[in-house]
Specification:
Number of helices: 7
Shape: globular
Structural class: alpha/beta
Strand order of the largest sheet: 3-2-1-4-5
Strand content: 15-25%
Radius of gyration: 16 Å
Distance between the termini: 48 Å
Number of domains: 1
Helix content: 40-55%
CATH class: Alpha Beta
CATH topology: Rossmann fold
Order of helices and strands: HEHEHEHEHEHH
Largest sheet: 5 strands, parallel
Number of strands: 5
Length: 171
């Protein structure tokens, strides 16, 4: 299956999204203005531990984009390249917050390119409001009782409050 046969330009936006942040949401929305379809691909590795299981992460993302027909959510536990081949997509969408992200993202793009020459990686710079946010920082602040309201979608904020008992009044 080729991208032309599927009826449009498809981009895969892979990540663990544990949890999805407003920075991720920004990249997805901006990507949906460039591509006909963006598949948010929730990656999982059985050897890693996550705050949210894969079903919870997918459900949270589906809730956020429930009114966006061009955004689809799926999960995968293998090579990204295999998923791309099966989906008909030829583009990987990635977000970068700062120069510190560049080395890792560049290495991944080159490795994916080495696996198949038919795949391109497109990088979008994070919106300036989200440069400092990451899923790990969000989880750390929430676990210590700090506020993350406004840094994650409201449904994610509510789930974080369920996962981490309130330790103070700053939430």
């Amino acid at each position: 299956m080729t991208q032309e046969k599927t009826g449009g330009k498809i981009a895969i936006y892979p990540g663990s999204f544990d949890p999805i942040t407003n920075g991720h949401v920004d990249i997805i929305k901006r990507g949906s203005r460039i591509f006909d379809k963006v598949i948010v691909l929730v990656a999982y590795n059985p050897r890693k531990s996550y705050l949210f299981n894969v079903e919870e992460r997918c459900q949270l993302i589906r809730e956020i984009f429930k009114d966006c027909e061009c955004i689809q959510v799926d999960s995968h536990d293998g090579l990204l390249i295999d998923y791309l081949h099966n989906s008909g997509a030829r583009t990987i969408l990635r977000g970068m917050r700062a120069l510190s992200d560049f080395e890792y993202e560049f290495q991944m793009a080159l490795m994916n390119r080495r696996q198949t020459k038919n795949v391109e990686t497109v990088f979008l710079m994070s919106g300036f409001r989200w440069f400092f946010t990451s899923s790990n920082i969000i989880k750390e602040v929430a676990s210590l009782g700090g506020t993350v309201r406004g840094l994650v979608p409201e449904n994610v904020h509510q789930k974080l409050l369920e996962k981490y008992p309130i330790k103070n009044n700053r939430r």
